[in-house]
């Protein structure tokens, strides 16, 4: 009777091992489900980025307004006759400009 119990226990362990720890076991399936979910999130973010880039490409191909906007924002270009004005926030630190020293007397 004791031998039969040990044989059945070993048979149960041998059949359960692949189910839990084997190549296609529950732990591996759980791990792969997490990887798939993470990859789906990454794909969704990349799809949104691609759609935004495609819309920008279409906008650049269709008219000059988008090109002009990018030239102003990225290259700092202005049109003829325009005056560039930059308004700094009072909370931002002012850039320190070194002023040249002017001698008091001529000849120094």
UniProtKB/TrEMBL annotation:
Subunit structure comment from the entry: Part of a complex composed of FtsB, FtsL and FtsQ.
Periplasmic side: 22-108
Cytoplasmic topological intervals: 1-3
Protein name: Cell division protein FtsB
Keyword S-adenosyl-L-methionine belongs to the record: no
Coiled-coil regions listed in the entry: 29-56
Compartments it resides in: Cell inner membrane
Any one GO cellular component localisation term in the record: cell division site
Source species: Allopusillimonas soli
Family recorded in the similarity comment: Belongs to the FtsB family.
Function: Essential cell division protein. May link together the upstream cell division proteins, which are predominantly cytoplasmic, with the downstream cell division proteins, which are predominantly periplasmic.
Record gene name: ftsB
Entry-linked InterPro entries: Cell_div_FtsB, FtsL/DivIC
Topology with respect to the bilayer: Single-pass type II membrane protein
Record lineage: Bacteria, Pseudomonadati, Pseudomonadota, Betaproteobacteria, Burkholderiales
Keywords for the protein's UniProt record, in alphabetical order: Cell cycle, Cell division, Cell inner membrane, Cell membrane, Coiled coil, Membrane, Transmembrane, Transmembrane helix
Keyword presence, Cell division: yes
Any GO BP: FtsZ-dependent cytokinesis
Protein origin, superkingdom: Bacteria
A Pfam family: DivIC
Primary subcellular site in the record, as a coarse category: membrane
């Amino acid at each position: 009777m004791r031998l039969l119990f040990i044989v059945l226990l070993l048979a149960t362990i041998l059949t359960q091992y692949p189910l839990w720890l084997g190549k296609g076991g529950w732990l591996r399936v759980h791990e792969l489900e997490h990887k798939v979910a993470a990859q789906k999130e990454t794909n969704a973010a990349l799809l949104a980025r691609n759609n935004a880039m495609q819309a920008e490409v279409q906008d650049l191909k269709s008219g000059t307004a988008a090109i002009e906007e990018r030239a102003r924002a990225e290259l700092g270009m202005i049109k003829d006759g325009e005056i560039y004005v930059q308004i700094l926030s009072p909370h931002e630190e002012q850039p320190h400009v070194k002023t040249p020293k002017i001698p008091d007397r001529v000849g120094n």
